[in-house]
């Protein structure tokens, strides 16, 4: 970072050291902080938006610096290294401090380092030698800069050069920043459709069908897994976003870890496109998804009959995910309440002929409806008696 450009650079490093001490991070640690490996890492990389711009990174940055003994790392928004370029000898040395794909190099996990501070503070930054909190990193220097979503401005990853002292020079930081500008330009072109990238764009909404079906489907794709449908519904229900831990609890309280959630989201991005779901927190791209359940919610406020007709059954009836169960029960209760409050004979008949077939209160209301034919009222009274008996009323 050039002098005067970011006068708080030294302060960022100092505060990072203070945080690391408070968190009890051992500065002598050299064990790997690797939370993704093998197939899980491959799936996460495949679904990450930074994969789209690797050709630019390789052409502009990698080709110019790795032959001089430097490493180039591409990280996700959490500070996890996804791709690492460099000569075998340099990479072997870096492995001794766990600077490897799949490793977390966030400021919160390993203390002061360029990619970690760049992502934490959303600024280009360089860290020299003993400014690193971890002692094994004292023989290295690095320059890094964050990469932003060109539409929302949110940080989606970072690019870093690590190596000898020259890795923290003004020239190297300028080269990293120039690469980021080209990467963000490519992302912008991709999202506007002027690139060869074929992921889903922000201008169209894809409809997810989840009502009354054990086989959810996504428009333009076909059937999706129950787990993917659950994730999509929960992210749609929390537009402000969910952390990995919160999403895991909503999917399977106490029975699912964040690594499994990340793997599912990586697979889901392959269905929807790499720009579909943001990380940190996980959040659906605005306008990406519509669902038959959402259509029912919208209809309830203006046309109860249309809402009943559109409500083909419970939301994802096979799901036992706590967050989905809550959504399912809430929607069912709202449709039922609207039908009973309206008191329309036709609405009541449609309700008990479908999702409300076991609703004794609806059958009772129909048996008393003044506009219903005597035969219908009699049949409704009989059904009420049957259901009351079944429920022990």
Give an overview in words.
This is GAF domain-containing protein. α2 crosses α10. 48% of the residues lie in helices and 12% in strands. It folds into three domains: 184 residues, GAF domain (Beta-Lactamase, 2-Layer Sandwich), CATH 3.30.450; 84 residues, Winged helix-like DNA-binding domain superfamily/Winged helix DNA-binding domain (Arc Repressor Mutant, subunit A), CATH 1.10.10; 42 residues, no CATH class. It is elongated and about 90 Å long. The strands form three sheets. It has a five-stranded antiparallel beta sheet, with helices on both faces. The N terminus is likely disordered.
Give the tags.
393 residues; alpha+beta; Beta-Lactamase; Arc Repressor Mutant, subunit A; four-stranded mixed sheet; 16 helices; 12% strand; disordered N terminus; GAF-like_dom_sf; GAF; GAF domain-containing protein
Layout of SSEs?
Layout lengths: L8 H15 L14 H10 L6 H12 L5 E6 L4 E5 L2 H8 L11 H4 L3 H8 L3 E3 L13 E8 L6 E9 L6 H23 L13 E4 L7 E2 L3 E2 L2 H12 L6 H9 L5 H15 L4 E2 L4 E2 L4 E3 H9 L3 H7 L11 H21 L2 H8 L7 H9 L5 H17 L3
Parallel strand pairs: 6-11
Antiparallel strand pairs: 1-2, 1-5, 3-4, 4-5, 6-7, 7-8, 9-10
Helix pairs in contact: 2-10, 3-7, 9-10, 11-12, 11-13, 12-13, 12-14, 14-15, 15-16
Concise structural overview:
This protein is of the alpha+beta class and 393 residues long. Helix content is 48%, strand content 12%.
